[in-house]
Write a structure and sequence with these properties.
By secondary structure, the protein is mainly beta. It has one domain: Immunoglobulin-like. 6% of the residues lie in helices and 45% in strands. The chain is built from one helix and ten strands. The strands form two sheets. Strands 1, 2, 5, 8, 9 and 10 form a six-stranded mixed β-sheet that branches. Strands 4-3-6-7 form a four-stranded antiparallel β-sheet. The chain is globular, with a radius of gyration of 13 Å. This is 5-hydroxyisourate hydrolase. It catalyses: 5-hydroxyisourate + H2O = 5-hydroxy-2-oxo-4-ureido-2,5-dihydro-1H-imidazole-5-carboxylate + H(+). InterPro entries: Hydroxyisourate_hydrolase, Thyroxine_BS, Transthyretin/HIU_hydrolase, Transthyretin/HIU_hydrolase_d, Transthyretin/HIU_hydrolase_sf. GO terms for molecular function: hydroxyisourate hydrolase activity.
Length: 110
């Protein structure tokens, strides 16, 4: 299987553990669904999308409400959407998500 241009890693900062079982969708700027994955036992979704993306704006949508609901936890964010820009020839994009029931943060990883 070819490597995807985008990957993610979700950590549940409230528990200090990887967040397994979170559905993640990669969308174009127009909202077209390009790929979907579910985080593995290490909180990673490595096979998310095509090997190459055209330069432009994309969005990762994380089903955080389902994740917390399955644990019987209330959350303020039923989903988290991260919009990011892909530049020409900028290499792989790793977009981690640090998550808790009432806050989240992200950054461009490596």
């Amino acid at each position: 299987m070819a490597a995807s241009h985008v990957s993610t890693h979700v950590l549940d900062s409230a528990t200090g553990r990887p967040a397994a079982g979170i559905a993640v969708v990669l969308e174009s700027a127009a909202g077209t669904r390009l790929a979907a994955a579910v985080t593995d036992s290490d909180g990673r979704a490595n096979g998310l999308g095509p090997e190459r993306l055209e330069p432009g704006t994309y969005r990762l949508v994380f089903a955080t409400g389902d994740y917390f609901g399955a644990r019987g936890q209330e959350t303020f964010f039923p989903e988290v959407g991260i919009v990011f820009r892909v530049a020409a020839d900028a290499g792989h994009y790793h977009v981690p998500l640090l998550l808790s029931p009432f806050a989240y943060s992200t950054y461009r990883g490596s």
